[in-house]
Each structure stands twice: as structure tokens, then as C-alpha cells.
Amino acid sequence: MKTKRLLRALALLLVLTTIALCFTSCFEESSSQTNSNETTTTAKKENSKKHNSNNNSSSSKSDECANSTCSYKTDSNSNYCSVCNCQVTGCKNVKSSNGLYCIEHTCVKDGCTFEKYNNSDYCILCKCLDNDCKNAPIENGNYCLEHTCAVTNCTNRTTFESGSKYCIGHSCLACSNIRVANGFYCKNHTCIASGCKGQKSYNSNYCPIHKY
Ligand SMILES: [Zn+2]
Ligand SMILES: [Zn+2]
Ligand SMILES: [Zn+2]
Ligand SMILES: [Zn+2]
Ligand SMILES: [Zn+2]
Ligand SMILES: [Zn+2]
Ligand SMILES: [Zn+2]
């Protein structure tokens, strides 16, 4: 009985020692692994630092397009590639998302994506349609205020060359004043006979028909 107990005690001691030894060695192993991991991370950091400084020394900026969703190479003088850059020669801005030009060079009319015309804020189709006029057209019209007939609700072009504020349909045929209603001449040039639309004769208030 005594020996059996002693043997059991010895066996227990052996087991405990084994566990203790195993635990210590495991711990040592794992801690040495952590150390080696740290060394690797540090080495990586140093590598990436070197990489960055290499880039910096070769050129002042990256040659990849500045548009974060684009990976094309940039053109010589721009931060953007030829696809992302505004299509106006010499412009270095990024083009707007729905057109070919940057905000600065895109027609200001809502929804229009065409290029601004010369020094106009509008493209050639959205600006006043008068030849080289750069003004904005009036609402619901094709011409600017200066080139739109002065008659309310008339959006025709003025006969500006003849100095009239009115369109060809509202301008007196003999001068630049407004025509009388349903007539062809202004008040000064229309025969005063009731209902007559004819032009006054020279030195008379009447047309040739009503003169005598
Ligand atoms: Zn790009
Ligand atoms: Zn531009
Ligand atoms: Zn436009
Ligand atoms: Zn105009
Ligand atoms: Zn008119
Ligand atoms: Zn007249
Ligand atoms: Zn008359």
C-alpha cells in the first residue's frame, strides 16, 4: 500500500513537471515569434520609406492621373490624364463628370455640356443668336434683351442695324419707331384717314389715295 501511494505521487510529480516544462518552452517560442514579427514590420516600414524618397527624388509629383478612380498616366503639364483633363488646349483642370470640359469652360446653361463660346458664359447654341453677341438670351427666347424686339411677348430679333428696338414685323417701314396696331407704319407715318394703313404723302397727313 505504501509503495503504491509513493509511485502515484511520483507519477503525478512527473506529469506536473512535464506540463510546466512544456508551458515554459511554448511561451519562449511565442515570445521569440513576436520579436521576429516586429523586426519584419520595421524592415517593411524602412523599405516603403526608401521607396517614397526614391519617387520624390525622380519627380516632384506622381505621374498617375489625379482622378482617384483613374490609373492612366498624366500628360506632361497636367495632374490629369488626357481623358480626365478638360479638352480645352492648355487647360489643366479636370473635366466635369458629364462632359468634355471643366466647369470653367462649360456653358453655364442648365444641362448643357458644350464649350463656352469665346468670352461668353454660354456655348454657341445657348448664347444670344445674334452673330457675335456673347450675352445670355432672355427666358424663352433666342436673343438677349438688347437684341430682342421691345414689344411685350415678342421674342424676334430687333432690326438693330436700322437702329430700331423692334423686330422687322413691329418696326415702321419708314423709320425705326413701332408700327401702329395691324399697320405697316408708325403713328407719324400712317395716313390719318379712318382705317387706312397707307403711308402719308410728302407734306401731307394723308396717303395718295386720301390726299384730295
Ligand atoms: Zn485620368
Ligand atoms: Zn477647362
Ligand atoms: Zn450651351
Ligand atoms: Zn444679343
Ligand atoms: Zn417684334
Ligand atoms: Zn415711321
Ligand atoms: Zn390713307
Characterise the protein shown here:
This protein is mainly alpha-helical and 212 residues long. 27% of the residues lie in helices and 0% in strands. The longest helix has 57 residues, at 2-58. One zinc ion (ZN) is lined by residues 172, 174-175, 177, 185-186, 188-189.
Give a quick precis of the structure:
27% of the residues lie in helices and 0% in strands. It is mostly helical and 212 residues long. The protein has a domain at 61-116.
Oligomeric form? single chain
What fraction of residues sit in β-strands? under 5%
The helix-strand sequence is: H
Unique ligands: zinc ion
Q: How many strand units?
A: 0
Helix percentage range: 25-40%
Coarse morphology? rod-shaped
Give me the Rg, rounded. 45 Å
The description of the largest β-sheet is: none
How far from one another are the termini? 164 Å
Q: Please, how many helices?
A: 1
SS-based structural class? mainly alpha
The averaged pLDDT comes out at: 78
Show unreliable segments: 9-60
Salient structural properties:
212 residues, mainly alpha, 1 helix, rod-shaped, binds zinc ion
Topology (SSEs and partners):
Layout: H1 2-58
The structure holds zinc ion (7 copies).
